[in-house]
Amino acid sequence: MTALTPSSARGQESHAIGMDAATTVAMTLKALAEPLRLRMLSAIASSPEGEVTVGELATLTDVSQPTVSHHLKVLRDVGLLTADRRGTSVWYRIKPAYRGAVNTLLDRFAPAAIDVMETPHLTGLRNVDPALDRMAASLAERFPGTPSNECLRVVRESYAALVRRGGESAYLVPLTEHFARQRIIDAEKAHAQETAAGAVHRPQVLFVCVANAGRSQLAAALMRHYAGDRVVVRSAGSAPAAEVHAGVRALLEELGDTTAADEVDDVTRFYPKPLTDDAVRAADVVVTMGCGDACPILPGKRYEDWMVGDPALASPAGVAAIRDDLDQRVRALLADLVPETT
Fold first, then answer.
1. Is 198 helix (H, G, I), strand (E, B) or coil?
2. Burial per residue of 168-193, b for 16 or more beta-carbon CB atoms within 10 angstroms, e otherwise
3. Same fold for the domain at 20-115 and the one at 129-337?
4. 3-class DSSP state for residue 135?
5. Torsion (CA) 164, 101, 322, 207 in degrees, nearest 10
6. Which CATH class, in words, describes the domain spanning 20-115?
7. pLDDT at site 316
8. Is pLDDT at 198 greater than 70 in this prediction?
9. What positions does the domain HTH arsR-type occupy (predicted)?
């Protein structure tokens, strides 16, 4: 083994995190390296009020309240949580300076840590250019308002985006066709100057989360289930996963959502899609769940941020509770958008 020279050692030192910083970060990670603490942290982060009591957290497990208090103290000692006593209860919330970091941990790092052991990543298909060219030509014929070179650009961008998020390579071409078609529809709507005279405007809702593999997929399916063709529904992810979570997929199947992919192909019914500017521009309402900072803020749009737990990290009972929470929120939003809805 070749020893490092002094100059190369200095070079490595310049790229590495400093020892003091590494020690501080390691202490925080050590405090998080306990399943119950992570569950409690996720419960606090996804609470609609942003704060939870010891008694509420004790329902997550069979341990006693003193044990819960011990774990919360560990998280307080490293600065992750703050506490506020009101009456006989102590309310815990995430320290504001840590809010973004905790969201990143729960919405991006945690799902990646789970998926990386199960999901192979791809490098794309060989000799795919002819298939993409044919796809672009077909879309140009179907959407004469979009130039053929723009169709080709959208197709190639869609293919590249789906390759980056991973997934089964055999499905890349049909997924690309569906995603590119949806993008062109959204772009044409977004760029239209006005609707045709006498046309009935259907509100368009975009549900966005980080992975588009759980919350946003389920919310979109529930909206389609209740709204039918009265609302145009889209979902997307700021960092889409390779596949929809298995537990969520089962719920989507139960909803019987045959329009989830506009009946293109059963393969494309449920799949994570990247967030695009056109999807935001075409939407009347944008609902974010854990990724508000990643979504463009455009004038004239209605934005809502829903504090909803992540099904990827939840128990079966937790997934059911998340589904019920989304069900209530979706029905309330639909009643607001389409007042005659009962």
1. coil
2. eeeebbbbbbbbbbbbbbbbeebeee
3. no
4. helix
5. -50
6. mainly alpha
7. 86
8. no
9. 17-117
